[in-house]
Amino acid sequence: MKVQPHCSVTLHYTMEPEDDAPFPFPTGPFRMECLIGHGVLLPALEEALLGRNEGETVEVLLPPGAFGQDSSPKRLVPLSVEDIAEHGPHEPGAIRHIMDAQRRLQPFRVVKQDGRLVWADFRHPFADRSFRFRVRVEKVRWATLDEIKNAARHGAHH
Hints:
The protein is mainly beta. The protein folds into two domains: 7-68 and 128-154, Roll (Chitinase A, domain 3); 73-121, Thrombin, subunit H (Beta Barrel), CATH 2.40.10. It has helices at residues 43-49, 145-154; strands at 7-17, 30-35, 57-62, 76-80, 95-99, 105-114, 117-121, 131-142. The two termini are 25 Å apart. The mean pLDDT is 88.
């Protein structure tokens, strides 16, 4: 069966940045099951998978901004060192966290530290970076009506 809208697809994939900048996240391999045509996958990945058969592999290069990030510097925020969950040093590029009003940890990337202030970038950690995805289609099946209804209820998840 070919990958097409309203299919549930099991994928095996890796992702790696195209640059040599620090990347403090796992690159895979990962395995996921997702619904095609319901905004679960990034559009460029979904487009590359359409029409593929079980067992096929595809490589996709996602350019900066493919994750929907805003590249403007408007999200740069000065934070007091005391408000940061992790204790120093806070070197540029490091991922740190701050507790929001709902008591959830919010990640940010350190841009610079100036004394007791840390300049934080709250954009997606993958902002302004290109990534290479290597994706193998493991299984394709028609989604159940419940899966389609659930996707419609919960909306897209990126």
